[in-house]
Structure to design on (976 residues):
């Protein structure tokens, strides 16, 4: 936006809002008793969209699913997918509408009241109205001719009455927007973006929708074409604006937004989309492609380089392509794979791995910017260099002069490439690059452009889960990028910053902590570990405790226990093995009935005497095995390297012989009795 | 310090993949002087019953639930599975109440182990009750019971095709080393140009069965009737070649007899304090001969 346009916008805002204020006086202070869920979204969107905006620029309530997820994450440290965040938000607002507006016969004008925190209760409702405009996808038809109110009633889950959702008053709707603008002006001096005066009540939500869903879905193709790596959050607005300006696939409405006072808002929205992009894009052949990034970390003093392929949801756990076999890692990547020194040419010219209708692609490149990875340890290839934060750079040999010169301009230091055999052939590596000022990069070095965006990132430490919660004793490093004069505080205590790293002793304490850098804030939690009973596994499962595991030498055996019902005939074994036996066996007895001695092996250190039983049922195998062995003069052995001293196996065996004889007599008596 | 933090983090997460573990090791130990390989640390944690790695042949790890594991010497136990600061604090209090001696020992790999000694098993059980975790005596024997014998693993294994154009390394059973090239019926490692290797055992008829690395070596030894394991009854020690480490569960069973990591001696890994009751099961599970001694003193045969 030009200075003239910005000035005009501000003047228009002040005039319009002052008019409303003069007509209606101050905002009323009654409460509607809205649900906690609605209150939460109301508060989150106020904080994220309205109060965190840059000073002296128009403020947009441009609600999209991705923005909702990011807002919840940044403000409340709750992680939801964009789809889940959208549904959670929609449900909260629609339930509010059903209960507080329709249920109590209030007009929507009642939402102009403020909460106990002094926030207008209309923010979330107005946000939903913007989401309705975002969702509208009737091709590239300009929004002006689309039906707006039916999709809005769908989101609100209420019926249409005439041209509007039930309970909806378009004039009150306009008033809510204007009141919000007034409140923002009073609260923070911010200027809510005003639409052109068209007389249409849908002007506000359509004006704040910036890029609609139909345009957002085209952005991955732009990112890929421009070589932006997924997750990049240091691409300069200038570079993004240039890229968007040349992207002819955007709808007319999107191009209009880029051309008018909403341009900065659009760029901010695209920055957020790029930062959340998982690297996937569908090409013209219908092949879903994801990107391969470069990961650098140091083991001691030595650099270690990996390829780290993205793994979007549609990609399998194992990705096989010829002589490439990748396994899924935690999070959104496959396990890193070595980037060998011999792969310099492949890194330069790019390559692709295909697996059916899926592909992983590393684009051709001559320069790589590496900044702190958020979820991984080390530096990851991303477009742009964040100001004030340590980064690294790689380039091909031919560009060494240009890069060295550029780095000197942006850092105020002379750099020499890092020499190590791990660096790919034909490439050089610069480490400890801390950009202090921006400078226009020469042609070919655009990826090294310095971004002035204020960002707060957390690296390292032991993160306990997907939200920003770290283990006490292993907190993250807090990195803040942006202009030198940005003021950083943690829990309202000002902190020092060195090379982008914030001194944060308070993160050693358990609890929730808020880090602020300028108007940006992030919440992190530090907590004790708890046992994750749901996912831990058992060292020993109980189900096998009723079995005994018995080592058995090769041969033919019947295993017998202390009781006459305990006998197990084994199949012949050609070698020693371990057998699962349903009882605790004492002996392994050779069951053959031909000539020669029979081996009887004692399987335990302290064999018990046989147990006499009254029943003869199921004792046949036991007693016949004992008798057969006795008939053939058993040769007693120990299943161990040394015999147990002072223990006479014959004496113990005698008890088994006696019980077998007793069982035989009982069997005869029973037979004769029958 | 790094070790306790790492285990607490793993306990909270419950499970994950290798890349997250590797990154956590580097972060947990970044202030420690000793820079150990994540593979070494994983081995320690696995052997001492803290966590399982490469679960089902994947890159997944999973922490075991906290458990007081009775060692083969009765009246001694160690804390296995996940741990938190509150659990350790509670253990100290419970041991004091039951007059159980608890010692924190640090292994040469920096792992902190909590060893309890009591006058009876009942005291150990009561400590476990106070901590609301199970107590299991003779843990090594129990672990052995749930292991599938190597012969059965081979019989049940699904034949697969050997990958094409992947680098092949073979396990030389004579020298007990991995060598480059194809040595026929033995354990093999197939490595792609990029990505994770696959391990297989090749049978005499050329059938390839995919297995976890260590199991593949023991399966090859089983097929070729080549002994890897040695038991010295007088010292109660069990040893294996350094490059033929026991499959994880068997290593755990051996290590938790005495609650100690194996020692490196003359090219072999030696587990101490292994009673015959456990050693015999380990020999049988891996298809090794089991010594049989006549009751009359005329020498051993197997």
């Amino acid at each position: 936006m030009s200075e003239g346009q910005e000035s005009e916008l501000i003047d228009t805002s002040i005039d319009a809002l002052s008019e409303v204020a003069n007509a209606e006086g101050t905002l009323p202070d009654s409460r509607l008793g809205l649900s906690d869920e609605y209150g939460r979204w109301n508060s989150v969107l106020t904080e994220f969209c309205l109060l965190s905006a840059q000073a002296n620029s128009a403020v947009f309530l441009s609600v999209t699913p991705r923005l909702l997820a990011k807002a919840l994450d940044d403000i409340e440290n709750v992680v939801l997918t964009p789809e889940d965040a959208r549904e959670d938000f929609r449900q909260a607002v629609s339930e509010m509408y059903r209960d507080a507006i329709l249920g109590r016969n209030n007009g929507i004008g009642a939402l102009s009241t403020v909460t106990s925190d002094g926030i207008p209760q209309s923010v979330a409702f107005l946000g939903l109205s913007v989401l309705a405009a975002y969702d509208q996808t009737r091709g590239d038809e300009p929004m002006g001719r689309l039906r707006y109110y039916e999709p809005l009633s769908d989101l609100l889950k209420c019926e249409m009455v005439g041209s509007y959702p039930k309970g909806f008053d378009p004039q009150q709707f306009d008033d809510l927007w204007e009141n919000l603008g007034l409140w923002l002006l009073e609260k923070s001096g911010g200027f809510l973006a005003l639409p052109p005066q068209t007389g249409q009540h849908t002007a506000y939500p359509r004006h704040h929708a910036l890029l609609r869903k139909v345009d957002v879905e085209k952005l991955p193709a732009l990112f890929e074409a421009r070589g932006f790596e997924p997750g990049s959050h240091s691409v300069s607005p200038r570079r993004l604006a240039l890229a968007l300006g040349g992207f002819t696939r955007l709808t007319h409405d999107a191009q209009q937004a880029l051309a008018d006072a909403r341009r900065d808002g659009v760029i901010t929205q695209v920055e957020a989309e790029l930062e959340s992009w998982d690297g996937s894009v569908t090409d013209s052949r219908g092949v879903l492609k994801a990107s391969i990034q470069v990961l650098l970390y140091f083991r001691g003093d030595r650099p270690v380089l990996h390829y780290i392929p993205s793994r979007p949801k549609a990609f399998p756990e194992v990705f096989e392509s010829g002589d490439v076999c990748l396994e899924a890692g935690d999070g959104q990547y496959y396990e890193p794979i070595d980037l060998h020194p011999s792969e310099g040419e492949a890194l330069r010219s790019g390559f692709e791995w295909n697996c059916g209708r899926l592909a992983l692609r590393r684009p051709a490149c001559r320069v790589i910017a590496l900044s702190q990875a958020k979820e991984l340890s080390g530096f990851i290839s991303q477009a742009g260099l964040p100001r004030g934060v340590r980064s690294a750079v790689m380039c091909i040999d031919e560009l060494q002069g240009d890069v060295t010169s550029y780095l000197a301009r942006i850092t105020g230091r002379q750099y020499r490439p890092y020499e190590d055999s791990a660096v790919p052939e034909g490439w050089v590596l610069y480490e400890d690059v801390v950009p202090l000022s921006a400078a226009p990069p020469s042609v070919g070095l655009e990826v090294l452009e310095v971004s002035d965006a204020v960002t707060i990132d957390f690296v390292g430490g032991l993160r306990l889960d997907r939200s920003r919660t770290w283990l006490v004793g292993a907190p993250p490093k807090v990195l803040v990028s942006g202009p030198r004069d940005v003021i950083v505080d943690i829990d309202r205590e000002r902190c020092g910053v060195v090379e982008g790293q914030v001194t944060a002793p308070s993160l050693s304490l358990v609890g929730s902590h808020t880090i602020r850098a300028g108007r940006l804030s992030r919440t992190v939690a530090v907590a004790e570990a708890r046992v994750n009973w749901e996912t831990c596994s058992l060292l020993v499962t109980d189900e096998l405790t009723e079995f005994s595991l018995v080592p058995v030498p090769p041969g033919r055996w019947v295993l017998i226990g202390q009781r006459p019902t305990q006998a197990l005939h084994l199949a012949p074994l050609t070698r020693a093995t371990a057998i699962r036996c349903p009882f605790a066996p004492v002996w392994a007895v050779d069951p053959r009935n031909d000539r020669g001695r029979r081996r009887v092996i004692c399987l335990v250190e302290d064999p018990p005497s046989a147990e006499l039983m009254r029943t003869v049922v199921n004792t046949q195998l036991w007693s016949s095995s004992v008798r057969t062995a006795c008939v053939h003069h058993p040769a007693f052995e120990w299943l161990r390297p040394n015999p147990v001293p002072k223990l006479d196996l014959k004496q113990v065996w005698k008890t088994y012989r006696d019980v077998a004889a007793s069982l035989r007599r009982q069997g005869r008596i029973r037979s004769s009795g029958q | 310090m790094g070790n306790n933090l790492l285990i607490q983090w793993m306990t909270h997460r419950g499970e994950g993949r290798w890349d997250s573990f590797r990154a956590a090791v580097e972060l947990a130990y970044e202030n420690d002087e000793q820079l150990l390989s994540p593979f070494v640390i994983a081995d320690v944690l696995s052997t001492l019953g803290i966590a399982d790695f490469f679960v089902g042949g994947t890159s997944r790890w999973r922490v075991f639930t906290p458990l007081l594991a009775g060692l083969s010497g009765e009246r001694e136990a160690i804390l296995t599975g996940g741990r938190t600061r509150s659990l350790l604090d509670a253990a100290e209090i419970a041991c004091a109440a039951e007059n159980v001696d608890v010692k924190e020992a640090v292994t040469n790999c920096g792992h902190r182990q909590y060893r309890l000694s009591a006058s009876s098993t009942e005291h150990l059980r009561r400590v476990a009750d106070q901590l609301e975790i199970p107590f299991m005596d003779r843990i090594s024997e129990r672990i052995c019971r749930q292991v599938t014998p190597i012969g059965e693993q081979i019989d049940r294994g699904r034949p697969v095709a050997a990958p094409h154009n992947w680098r092949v390394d073979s396990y030389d059973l004579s020298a007990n080393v991995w060598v480059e090239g194809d040595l026929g019926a033995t354990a093999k490692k197939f490595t792609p140009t990029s990505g994770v290797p696959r391990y297989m055992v090749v049978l005499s008829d050329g059938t390839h069965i995919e297995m976890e690395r260590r199991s593949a070596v023991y399966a090859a030894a089983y097929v070729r009737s080549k002994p890897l394991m040695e038991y010295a009854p007088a010292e109660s020690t069990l040893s294996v070649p350094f490059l033929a480490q026991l499959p994880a569960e068997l290593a755990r069973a051996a290590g938790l007899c005495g609650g100690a990591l194996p020692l490196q001696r003359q090219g072999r890994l030696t587990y101490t304090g292994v009673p015959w009751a456990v050693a015999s099961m380990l020999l049988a599970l891996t298809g090794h001969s089991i010594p049989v001694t006549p009751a009359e003193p005329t020498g051993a045969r197997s």
Notes: Chain A touches chain B through 71 residues (CB under 8 Å).
